[in-house]
Design a protein that fits this description.
single chain, about 0% helix, mainly beta, six-stranded antiparallel β-sheet
Length: about 70
């Protein structure tokens, strides 16, 4: 499922800067594939787990597959 990208966002390049509860979007080719709150991160592995608002399930997102964007609440 895709959604329209939120205009007021900033790209996350360092997953270590994310905290639980931060709202993020995962994009591929500027299409939003996931949007939700961060539950956990593994910066050394380049992955973040979120609770996806679009589908309602937990998703693991890799920086190899998606660009991660902070969404202003």
């Amino acid at each position: 499922m895709t959604a329209i990208a939120t205009p007021s966002t900033a790209r996350i390049l360092d997953l270590g800067s994310l905290a639980a509860g931060t709202v993020v979007e995962a994009r591929r080719k500027n299409e939003v594939h996931y949007r939700g709150c961060v539950e956990d991160t593994a910066p050394g592995l380049g992955v973040v787990w979120i609770r996806d608002d679009l589908a309602g399930h937990r998703a693991i997102l890799s920086l190899d597959e998606y660009s991660i964007w902070h969404v202003a609440a």
